[in-house]
Glucohydrolase (Acidipropionibacterium acidipropionici), 566 residues
Amino acid sequence: QDETQWWRSAVVYQIYPRSFADSNGDGVGDLQGVIDHLDHLVALGVDAVWLSPAYRSPMADNGYDISDYQDIDPIFGDLATMDRLIAEMHARGLRLVMDLVVNHTSDQHAWFRDALTGPDAEHRDWYIWADPRPGATAHDAGPGQWRGDEPNGWVSAFSGPAWAWDEASGQYYLHIFAPGQPDLNWENPKVRQAVYTMMNWWLDRGVDGFRMDVINLISKPAWGPDDAGPAINACSVGPRLHDFLAEMNREVMATSDKVLMTVGEMPSVTLDEAADVSGRDRHELNMVFQFEHVWLDNGPDGDKYRPVPLRLADMKANMARWAGLCETGWNSLYLGNHDQPRFVSRWGDEAHRELSSTAWAAMLHAHPGTPFIYQGDELGMTDAHFESIDQYRDVETLGYWHRAVDLDGRDPDEVMAGVRYISRDNARTPVQWTAGDNAGFTTGTPWLAVNPNHAEINAQTQVGVAGSVFEFHAALCRLRHELPVLTDGSIELLDADHPRLWWVRRRLDGVTLDAVANMSSAPLDLAEASQPLPEGRVVLSNIVPVADDEVTAHRLAPWEVRWTLS
Ligand code: TEU
């Protein structure tokens, strides 16, 4: 492994601490719970962990609303536990990538509380304030509802206006997400310096990098009263984004004596923009999380709660296209995280759960870029399958439901179908460690219901057990470290239009890796492929091979995936 670019050949595991493991019985996962399960990650063979926010927070958005960047929320532990986590990880050769949420703070952050004291407050200009729209009249409206004189028509990512009214000063403040997540004003150099100082403080504590939450939104565009639509689109890659990231790189990353990993989460980013952010000679970030492939099944107007079926050919084309990013910059590879449903439920087939989850994972890992495994996906965990809206906790889901059902009067059954498909809570149910009570996640009452299928799907029955989904993921990690072609090889997409066959060919220095999968629940006759499968050494498979079987040679079983090296 080339230490100066360790993140190119790494596999990263994402921990959402609230749902990972609870050590003290309060029903919420915590940092001690992470420490207790580090050997799970060693057995899996990942290189680094991205830890979703554990900072002090009133939890309006499960920690993506931070009230103190330099403290740990008591529900997760304290700074001493954090220091122990870093030490225990480093002792096992694991690196820690912290979540950095600096597009916005919590409305309980000391900076915002000061800003609220009035237009002359020291921190007033740390946030984004605007007068009511001239000439418009306001009516009283509940929190999160339109008053009628908002500065413009930007819509928050969690439904409703992106502007919240401050009665005391007679101004609105901008919040692209929840009202409890006011956007920071990055035009103010004091804001930027405060962020860099805080990042360096974490680097001094030993962290190895940052995953930067919606970092493409920090530079706001010039806007007028007639602007409308999702604020998240309007604010993507604003005019000074590259200046800000280059400055951050100079003030933080370049001053570190170790090689950090930085990944910018960037909804709506284009391929060209991502190439600029991650360009090797530009010194901004190492890589990006782009969103195009997880939006392919969004419905009309990009409404993800009115999903349409995924066409595999679209996914194949999209991933092949984004692979191009790795020529000059770098891409990250993911199918799921704490904001997406479980990919096995979404795009696989739970009736073929082990096969379809491993087929998807293998095809993801076959692409150029750094793969991310979201907690539980290495076990083939499924969606929550909640029956009633009362079971959901996610601020985005509940905001959408309120708007669609209570305000717009849509049919609850229809809205519920969308929620069940796409809700972020699908992937936030507790990690299933055992078949026992609460899946071994907690001795108390879990904050979000444990999936009853933990009786069948859990770590205990998979770790060290040949043929399990877990051991398949361990093989993916191993192969990443053994085969340079996975990191550095060229890529070719074969049979691009085939609706069920996924075939990717990687090449490097005379070595060819063919990743071939049947992405359907029916057998696939290989005569349908445009060329014969190459003979070679099978280095990865999710079925038990039948020696010299004529049938297996000429067809792929439902959801069979095969990596062949020649
Ligand atoms: O998410 C940003 C984001 O754009 C989406 O993933 C978001 O979940 C929304 O569904 C878009 O449809 C990041 C975090 O990952 C997410 O958990 C936070 O809620 C959000 O930023 C705000 O900090």
